[in-house]
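This week, think about what follows.
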Amino acid sequence: MTHDRSRQDIRVRKTATRLADGRELFYFDDSEPYVSGAATRRLDDPRPLPERFAPVPGPDGTPRPVTGPEMRYDVLTGEWVPMASHRMNRTFLPPADANPLAPAKPGAAYSDGEIPAEDYDVVVFENRFPSLMRLPGQEDTVTPLDGEELWPTRPAVGRCEVICFSPDPSSSLATVGPRRMRTVIEAWADRTTALGALEGVEQVFCFENRGKEIGVTLHHPHGQIYAYPYVTPRTATMLRQARAHRERTGRNLLRDVLDAELRSGRRVVAESEHWVAYVPAAARWPVEVHLAPRRDVPDLPALTGAERDDLAEIYLRLLAAGDRFFVADGAAVPLPYIAAWHQAPVREGRDDLRLHLQLFSVLRAPGKLKYLAGSESGMGAWVSDTTPEKIADRFAEVMA
C-alpha cells in the first residue's frame, strides 16, 4: 500500500509492507524516484523467521501458544509496570557488520537485518523485542495475581515501533538536514495518529535515546514510538497539576508556563516564528531544555505545515547546540540525551495538556554522569547539580 501526503511543498510517500515474521514496516520517502512512485523500496523480506504469533515448543517439546508481556499494578504508587522478560535477550551493541538497522547490503548473503531495502530515507517498523504487544484475539482483562485482589495483572497490550532517521550508521539526527528532519516529523505525526486509533491505546510517545550513557544498545540514528494501554505516570502527574490549575484560574497550565517564560526571558534560549525553546524554571537534569509551539496544540498531528517546517529547522539547531554544550580537551563532546515528545493522551486531557519536547541529558560534565542515587531513586526527591539559569546561559552561548 502506498499513498502520498503533502504539507505545503513537502511530499512524503508512505509505503507499507510486512517483515518475514509478520511485523509491519513503513518506508517514508522524500527522495526520487521513490517519492513520486516511479520506484518502490524492496517489500519482501527473505529471512527465514518464524511467524511471530506461531506456537512455540515448550520444555517437553509440545507446541504451546505464544505468550505476550504482562503488566502488574503497583498498589503503592498506582502505576502499571510491564514485565517483558523476553527483552533480556534482545540485540546488544552488535558489531558494525551486523547492525540490524542498517540497509541491506547489495548482493550480500543473508543477514538478520530488519530493513529489506538497500537504501531508505526514513523507516518505521514494529520492534522485534517489544515491551508492549497485543496478541491476536487477546482480551485486555484484569486478573488477580496469586488470587489476591490487591495485585491486579493485565496483558501489556499496546505497540512498540522503531524509527530509523538515516541509513548511515555513523550519522545522527542532528546531521540529517531540514528536509529529512521534516520527513521524520511527518512519520512521527503519521504513527501518532495510527497508533492512537488502535484498540486499548491511551497514549502515544515518540522519543529518542542517544548515547551509551543513556543505555542505547544499537549505535544507529534511531528513535522509538510507544503506544501505551494506560496514561503514563509522568503524564498523569502533569494532568493532575493542569486540572488543579484550571480549577483555580480557568486557564491552561502549560500555556501559562510558556507565557511566563516569555515574559521573564531569562531562560529562553531560542525563538522562531512558531516555536520557543526554554530551560524550565525547575529543570531537574544537568542539561535540559523544552521546546514548545506558540499555538496551543495537543499533539504532533495537530501541527500545521508551517509549524512542521519551522520545527524541522529549530529542532536541528537545538540538537546541534547540545553537541556543543560540553567541551573536553578543546573538542566538543557529543551529548548523550533523551528527546521526549510529551503529547496529550488519546482520549483524556486533550484540552488540559499541550504538546512540548523535553530534551535532557544525564551528563553533568565531560566524563561525569548524574546518577540517580538515594534521594532521587529511593524517595523520588530530586536534587539538581546546577541551576536552570546556568543551563540557559550555556545554551545561549552555543545556540547557532
Summary: Residues 2-55+65-230 form a domain with the HIT family, subunit A fold (CATH 3.30.428.10).
